């Protein structure tokens, strides 16, 4: 054990230097010292208090501010005011330190005033603090900032040369002034003893020439100032200028004689012979040089060289300056904006102290006026840049699509050659389109006869006959009009039509050298997902006639088999989780409740805080964070303010309750549905509606959408539930289990519906929001899940296009130059459009499907789709 009162001053000063140089995070240093002060060993407490006091006086204001926080001071205050048992020496040391810190903090009440408040609270509790140390009081009167490594500034251009940072032109920070530079403007290294940094670190040219701490009064010292000329230096420059003039006059006089006489040169050389005789080696070198000059002159006379502009006057040709970009701002505008921003954003500017009394100084007002005049040109150039960015993004998308299709054609050609060389072809009657783009494998179970597809049924076909009350048709199994996709691929039929529309598969990167295994696993995952979907080719509208009978009206989505798929989201989540856990580098953690997200700017990482069951609080640091935690995203909630993200959340006056129609009696070993499984069933009621989506097990997921007052009124008692459904949805009530319906309506809470919009969809270069966490929407368009999958596809596409090599970390350093910014820009417009369509489709489903004008519009839509080609008209 170290003897009481003994402190290793050398080690303590080294710790102070590390804190002052920011080699140790000030918050982490404060937490470590706080833990030592709360230690049970009195010797450890004494040493920790001494080290804390030394770090306060020598570690800089950034550490003192952490000590002055409630996290550090509240436990000390509680220990003293509650008179918890302490060793007398520790208690005396703690009171002495608190008194000293009180006087030191009094010089900066705005940042460090909490220590003064704690000292006053301790005195009010009847605890007497020791008399102040005269040396500490004297030091507090002239207490100045301890030099500490500055905070790093952030920017997208070099502070000195104003070059914009890109993927290849990376940014670097000067450790002396904290500003951002390119590699050419910050290629010097030196130690910074005034900050306690003994090793050589990167500095900018200005700080390297200054050889001292960065000035806090002037923020425009990135360009080194020109040294003031001394008298000795001025005299030397005058002598050099006179010598240059004399040499120029001598050359001009000797130029006319050079072409006619070579002998004076030789005579002059021989005239200096006596001096060369003193050094034989020098004479031999001069003679060799003269012989070389004679040979060069003879060659020039024999083969005269064509004179160029560079030979005239001995002046080298000047390189043509590059054309100025149309988006480049004038240097005066850049200087106006930077001068104003740096002046206002400087935290310790002296003029800010007197603003409350004297107002803003006139020079700062002039800077503001100049910056305002330049702001219009900045906005104009920014709009033009965004317009060009959208154009380039569109060209990039077209090029990427063409490259993918071209690679697909090459793959098809290679597969055909391999099949030809391995075995004779199985059939030769396949059309080129069916060979190049194979259909999704389809098969029908032997126990269920295959129904005729309804893709080519004209839109004017009569509605299905109404289902009479008490009819046995409700219990009869209905065979799907579209065959289900099996999990194992089978050979497609030979006479597959060119106009048939296949369910699109997820697109994957086709670079076989690196992504072949991922591509194969993705295709197998797509097969699994497609085996779980039920295709729906039409809406089935359920209405009541005047006599109370149920009327069915089938409204196809298109004339060429267009449709949507019904998929159980829980089943999809399970498939995705199983596929993810099958990967080697994927790990899953359950019972981890996210409670905080902190973006650390100094190293561009994300610190996550979890409340783990049985373990307490756990913190982990990550390079990137993908927020996929749904509409109530904790990632979005905890990062909104730090990322300056605009969030809008709007609810509609409609809630929903999920119900269920059980499967029918199985027939022939296959599941059966009580309604047509290839339709989206809708019961429109103008202000509310009921919908039903088919599931692969023969059941239907039923959802009741209605205003909240109506939902509450029809859910008070069992009689109200049955009366409401028998009056408005009699056929749905017959298909349901009444006991289960009543239980669900009385126990399930109605959920709200709303839209969430985030701008941007990504935060900096380390946080990305995906799916409902970024753009939750109402479910009436059926595209919420697809938008989440599209987020992933677009993100990976931007990542692949931006990746050059395997160093992904370097791509994350520059936000606007990275794929993350491109992803956010590409998804913004599409997501907004889908959200508006989802809102409008609610009105269509609950009321417009009954309107004669809507039906006439659909008929006209089908007619145009039949007459025109697919590239000229798409069904609404």
UniProtKB/TrEMBL annotation:
Main location: membrane
Signal sequence extent: none
Domain VHS: 7-130
InterPro entries xrefs: ENTH_VHS, FAD-bd, FAD/NAD-bd_sf, UIM_dom, VHS_dom, Znf_FYVE, Znf_FYVE-rel, Znf_FYVE_PHD
Residue ranges of the region described as Disordered: 213-238, 253-281
Domain called FYVE-type: residue spans: 152-212
UniProt keywords, alphabetically: Endosome, FAD, Flavoprotein, Metal-binding, Monooxygenase, NADP, Oxidoreductase, Zinc, Zinc-finger
GO molecular function, one term: zinc ion binding
Listed GO CC annotations: endosome membrane; mitochondrial outer membrane
Composition bias, Polar residues: 253-264
A biological process from GO: kynurenine metabolic process
The family this protein is said to belong to: Belongs to the VPS27 family.
Protein name: Vacuolar protein sorting-associated protein 27
Native source species: Malassezia vespertilionis
Gene that encodes it: VPS27
């Amino acid at each position: 054990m170290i003897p009481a009162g003994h402190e290793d001053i050398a080690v303590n000063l080294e710790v102070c230097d590390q804190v002052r140089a920011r080699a140790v995070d000030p918050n982490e240093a404060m937490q470590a010292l706080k833990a030592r002060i709360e230690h049970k060993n009195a010797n450890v407490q004494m040493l920790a208090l001494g080290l804390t006091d030394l770090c306060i006086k020598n570690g800089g204001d950034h550490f003192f501010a952490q000590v002055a926080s409630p996290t550090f001071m509240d436990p000390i205050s509680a220990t003293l005011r509650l008179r918890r048992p302490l060793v007398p020496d520790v208690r005396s040391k703690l009171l002495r330190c608190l008194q000293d810190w009180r006087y030191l903090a009094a010089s900066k009440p705005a940042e460090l005033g909490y220590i003064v408040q704690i000292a006053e609270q301790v005195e009010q509790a009847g605890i007497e603090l020791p008399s102040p140390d005269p040396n500490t009081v004297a030091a507090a009167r002239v207490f100045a900032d301890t030099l500490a490594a500055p905070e790093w500034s952030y920017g997208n251009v070099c502070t000195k040369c104003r070059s914009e940072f890109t993927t290849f032109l990376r940014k670097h920070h000067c450790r002396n002034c904290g500003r951002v530079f390119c590699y050419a403007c910050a290629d010097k290294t030196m130690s910074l003893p005034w900050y306690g940094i003994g090793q050589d670190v990167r500095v900018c040219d200005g700080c390297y020439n200054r050889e001292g701490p960065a000035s806090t009064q002037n923020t425009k010292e990135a360009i080194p100032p020109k040294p003031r000329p001394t008298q000795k230096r001025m005299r030397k420059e005058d002598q050099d200028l006179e010598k240059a003039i004399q040499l120029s006059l001598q050359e001009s006089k000797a130029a006319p004689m050079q072409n006619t006489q070579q002998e004076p040169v030789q005579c002059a050389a021989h005239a200096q012979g006596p001096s060369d005789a003193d050094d034989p080696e020098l004479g031999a070198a001069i003679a060799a040089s003269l012989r070389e000059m004679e040979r060069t002159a003879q060659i020039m006379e024999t083969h005269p060289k064509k004179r160029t502009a560079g030979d005239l006057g001995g002046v080298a040709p000047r390189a043509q300056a590059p054309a100025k970009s149309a988006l480049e701002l004038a240097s005066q505008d850049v200087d106006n904006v930077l001068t104003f921003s740096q002046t206002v954003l400087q935290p310790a500017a002296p003029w800010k102290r007197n603003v409350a009394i004297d107002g803003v100084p006139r020079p700062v007002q002039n800077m503001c006026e100049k910056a305002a005049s330049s702001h219009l040109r900045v906005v104009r150039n920014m709009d033009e840049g965004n317009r060009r960015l959208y154009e380039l993004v569109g060209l990039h998308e077209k090029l990427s699509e063409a490259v993918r299709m071209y690679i697909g054609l090459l793959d098809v050609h290679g597969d055909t050659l391999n099949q030809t060389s391995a075995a004779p072809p199985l059939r030769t009657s396949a059309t080129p389109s069916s060979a190049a783009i194979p259909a999704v494998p389809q098969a029908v179970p032997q126990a269920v006869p295959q129904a005729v597809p309804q893709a080519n049924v004209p839109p004017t076909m009569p509605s299905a006959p109404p289902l009479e009350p008490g009819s046995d048709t409700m219990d009869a199994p209905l065979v799907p009009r579209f065959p289900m996709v099996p999990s194992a691929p089978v050979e497609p039929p030979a006479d597959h039509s060119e106009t048939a529309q296949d369910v699109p598969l997820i697109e994957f990167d086709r670079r076989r050298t690196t992504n072949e295994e991922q591509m194969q696993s993705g295709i197998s995952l797509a097969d699994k997902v497609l085996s779980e979907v039920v295709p729906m080719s039409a809406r089935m509208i359920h209405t009541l006639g005047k006599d109370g009978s149920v009327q069915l009206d089938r409204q196809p989505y298109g004339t060429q088999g267009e449709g949507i798929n019904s998929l159980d989201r829980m089943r999809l989540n399970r498939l995705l989780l199983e596929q993810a856990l099958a990967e080697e580098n994927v790990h899953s953690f359950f019972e981890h409740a996210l409670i905080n997200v902190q973006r650390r700017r100094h190293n561009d990482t994300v610190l996550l805080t979890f409340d783990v069951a049985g373990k307490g609080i756990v913190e982990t640091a990550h390079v990137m964070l993908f927020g996929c935690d749904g509409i109530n995203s904790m990632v979005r909630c905890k990062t909104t303010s730090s990322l300056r993200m605009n969030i809008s959340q709007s609810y509609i006056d409609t809630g929903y309750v999920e119900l269920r129609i059980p499967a029918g009696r199985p027939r022939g070993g296959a599941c059966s549905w009580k309604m047509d499984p290839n339709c989206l069933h809708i019961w429109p009621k103008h202000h509310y509606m009921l919908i039903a989506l088919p599931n692969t097990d023969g059941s239907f997921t039923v959802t009741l959408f209605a205003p909240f007052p109506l939902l509450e009124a029809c859910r008070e008692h069992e009689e109200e539930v049955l009366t409401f459904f028998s009056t408005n949805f009699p056929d749905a009530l017959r298909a349901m289990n009444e006991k289960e319906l009543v239980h669900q309506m009385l126990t399930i809470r109605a959920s709200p519906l709303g839209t969430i919009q985030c701008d941007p969809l990504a935060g900096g270069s380390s946080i990305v929001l995906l799916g409902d966490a970024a753009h939750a929407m109402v479910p009436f368009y059926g595209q919420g899940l697809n938008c989440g999958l599209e987020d992933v596809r677009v993100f990976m596409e931007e990542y692949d296009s931006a990746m050059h090599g395997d160093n992904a970390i370097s791509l994350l350093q520059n936000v606007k130059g990275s794929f993350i910014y491109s992803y956010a820009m590409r998804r913004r417009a599409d997501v907004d459009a889908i959200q508006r369509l989802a809102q409008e489709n609610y009105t269509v489903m609950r009321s417009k499907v009954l309107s004669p004008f809507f039906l006439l519009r659909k008929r006209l839509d089908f007619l145009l789709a039949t007459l025109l080609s697919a590239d000229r008209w798409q069904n609404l």
